[in-house]
Amino acid sequence: ITQGDLVGSLHAARATGGFDRRFRQLAKVTLLIVDDFGLKPMRPPHDEDFHDLIAERYERVSTMLTSNLDFAEWGDVFPANRMLGVATLDRLRHGAYRLILEGDSFRAPRPLPESQRNAR
Questions:
Q1: What pairs with residue 65 in β-bridges?
Q2: What is the CATH number of the domain that holds 39?
Q3: What CA–CA distance (Å, rounded) separates 78 from 56?
Q4: Helix H or strand E encompassing 117
Q5: What pLDDT score was predicted for residue 96?
Q6: DSSP characters for 11-78?
Q7: d(CA 10, CA 101)
Q8: Rounded distance, CA 52 to CA 35, Å?
Q9: Record's Pfam families (predicted)?
Q10: Structurally, how many domains does the chain consist of?
Q11: What range does the domain containing 111 cover?
Q12: What is the reported pTM?
């Protein structure tokens, strides 16, 4: 699930009275993978919901984040409340394994195969 979809689903659940149920679901899943962390900054109440979820999962179940940001830039994801960001990131980093993948983007334009170039 992307960061945007995650906090959006919590926000939508709050609006329809299902926040507690959705929060418990996300808090208990064995491995939560949050894609595109930091692609967009989080504002209240999304930043608070994200923090609460990470705090609830902390040292209980596994959480994995993917991001194009360096650790030093992760604080920028919480522009409205830097202290909340620090607390959240401390929980995420504690005991974490860091994998750095380098290489060309698989979305980068690629040359057409020779057979397709000649067909045009």
A1: 34
A2: 3.40.50.300
A3: 18
A4: helix 114-119
A5: 92
A6: HHHHHTT-HHHHHHHHHH-SEEEEBSTTSS---TTHHHHHHHHHHHHTTTSEEEE--SS-GGGGGGG-
A7: 30
A8: 18
A9: IstB_IS21
A10: 1
A11: 3-119
A12: 0.85
Report the 10 Å Cβ neighbour count for 65.
Answer: 17
Find out whether 85 and 43 touch, Cβ atoms under 8 Å: no
Measured at the CA of 75, the angle between CA 29 and CA 80, to 5 degrees, comes to 95
Measured at the CA of 60, the angle between CA 2 and CA 32, to 5 degrees, comes to: 15
Give the integer Cα–Cα distance in Å for 114 and 120: 10
Q: Residue 52 corresponds to which tokens in the numbers above?
A: 């609460």
Residue bearing tokens 């980093």: 93
64, 94, 111 from 97: Cα distances, Å: 9, 9, 36
